[in-house]
Please model this.
Amino acid sequence: MPRSEHESVPATGKSESKAIAEYLPPRLSAVLDSLDRLCRWEELRLRAGQPLTVCAEGQTHYVTPKGELGLMPEDAVAVTRRDLTEALSLMTGGSVYAKEDQLARGYLTLPGGHRVGIAGKVVSEGGQVRRLLYPGSMNIRHCRAFRGVADGLVDSLRRRGRWTSTVIISPPGCGKTTLLRDLVRRASDGVAQKSIPPVQVGLVDERSEVAACDQGIPTFDVGRHTDVIDAAPKAEAMFMLLRSMGPQVLATDELGRSEDAQAVREALNAGVSVFTTVHADDVNQAESRPYVGALLRDGAFCRAVVLSRRKGPGTVEGIAKLDAGEGGQTTGYWRAEA
Amino acid sequence: MMLRICGLIGVVATGALVGQLLFLQLRERYKQLSNLRDGLRAMVTEIDYARRPLPEAWAELSDTFDGLTSSLFSEAAAAFGQGEAVTAGRAWLKALRSVDDVTELTEEDKRILRSLAPVLGASHREDQLAHIELVDERLARQAERAREVSRRRGRLFRALGFLTGILVAVILL
Model:
């Protein structure tokens, strides 16, 4: 599933980095303008007092004041604390309070689904991070939609005429969210050539990365029959969708907490198929995680799609068949190179 | 003779008018301060309840207010993200400068409004509310003084204007 073969669909209609450049202070956005011509960058890293770096195709490069890729840190643009403060201001619409819940969880999502991880000085109360006080570094992840990346998996993810519950497993940056988005679109729109009808899909987009909603309306194509709850806690939003929207497929990104697992169980008990993603290297590692592992061992999911970056982001390493056989035992894994 | 009487009436009327204008100028400051306080309270609602980013809130609130407050909000909303106004505070300062010629506020009033700039939009909700409340309290004191001044001096200015008109008319006789 090399991504370059698939059409890229900008979420906002703006050119590659334009949508991100407007959230950076002028001196950094000018640099970003020329980066698109040089590489398909994935991450832009800003650290106070350190050189500006960009990650492209698995490599980290320094970015010079002319927007060129450099090898030496001293040639690079030096990021200042002020740059970070100004970027944070622009990213929050000049209003940190408007995004303080996201900031307390260490990230922001920009229009277009671009996720910005933020580290720095935080304020904690009762063992929980309450708010970000001073940003010290930022990791801006360039979000791109790749239409059709799920096409090769459709047959593997259906059983007895319906979509099976599927978990997408990979380390960060391997394309879980991209695949989930396209899978949601495929399920929602159906596949006429394969006589697969459209189904009602409920999408819980806690981090606003999958659908990249603008005031509740998806800016990415997530299908004609998809209802999105944006920027809400996963478990609560899943229950909301189950109660109110009658989905046949429920999709959500990055499962991890106990309440998420409980909500998934509720959905499965209600006869709803679940598409989700999990951070792990492979199925075995995912099984060792506390709540997700229990779901996997209990046969909650029928398929696990394992991704890596071996041949670039989105490489399908295999599809594990997790169907419970007789006695509730997993019938085994099989590998598929898509 | 008739022309002369008309001229003298005109002189008296002019004196009275100048006094009235000075009174209205004083009263306008009080009205602007009161209106600005209403604007700040609306901002508090936008921050506390809607959690709306300030430029959005300003753009919307500019339609619900008039006069100085409306101009200040619309200028601040337009300034955000342009050039150096990359923070809400800088947009606020830019807006304050651009409405400077339509305001009857004193330098002290303006200083209080400018004091919001370093914190505006730069911190969490409770901090924003606390700072706006503080500025509102200071503006309330300024408004109370402005009302008192307009009440006392307004009467004085109107009387002085009228009497000055009469004095000039008597001299001209």
The mean pLDDT of chain B is 90.
